[in-house]
Write a structure and sequence with these properties.
Layout: H1 10-18, H2 24-39, E1 43-47, E2 63-68, H3 71-81, E3 88-92, E4 105-111, H4 119-129, E5 130-141, H5 170-179, E6 182-191, E7 197-205
Parallel strand pairs: 1-2, 1-4, 2-3, 4-5
Antiparallel strand pairs: 5-7, 6-7
Bound molecules: S-adenosylmethionine.
S-adenosylmethionine binds next to helix 2.
GO molecular function, one term: methyltransferase activity
InterPro entries: Methyltransf_12, SAM-dependent_MTases_sf
Organism: Eiseniibacteriota bacterium
Length: about 210
Amino acid sequence: MRSPWLDIPLGDYEGHMLLPSVGQAEMLSDQLGRIVIELDPDSVAVLGCAGGNGFHRIPPDRRIVGVDINPHYIAAAAERYAAICPRLELHTADIGSEAPSIEPVSLVFAGLLFEYVPSQSALRFVKSICRDGGTLAAVLQLPLEGAGVVSRSPFKSLESLESVIHLVSPEELEAAAARAGFQLRSRDQVCLPSGKSFAIRTFRST
Ligand SMILES: C[S@@+](CC[C@H](N)C(=O)[O-])C[C@H]1O[C@@H](n2cnc3c(N)ncnc32)[C@H](O)[C@@H]1O
């Protein structure tokens, strides 16, 4: 099945995430920035990187790897960051399939990705690009009673996500991660003014 992400213009996606009623772009960027400050990794892979949200929170001298299924998103990330981040590597790839050959990194960040890629295949991809002892940080959307899984939006192209989004509970991710060779490191949660909450889990690759 063709991913609906291939048909969502980046402007629509970013416009949606920046809506004050959504506010998720800043949250994801903040979470990436927080963990980069905590771990000070020499290399970071952002899976489902879209147009590079949060890349500016990684020191530009670090190796930064961005992966996304949508080649237009990757092209936008390149245009925005290639001149600023000399060690930037960008890949158009389906994280649900085999990993391209990417030299492993110290930190893998997956913000709102497990909602779109089956955990087992996403974790296989993560395992192949995460160093032994490296960290996986995942941000998961939690269910909110009475609200749509995809927030209401004037950007109609986002509606196509409703048929494919699948919320993964933190417990499901923890169990799948343990099976894939990741040890739980930390649990956290953030709540946005919209009322939506997000779980943050970090794991060490063992
Ligand atoms: C909810 S967005 C999160 C984007 C980003 N982390 C941010 O901060 O805005 C999900 C991203 O994952 C990408 N994506 C969805 N399915 C994918 C797949 N199978 N392989 C690679 N990327 C995928 C989408 O194109 C989109 O950019």
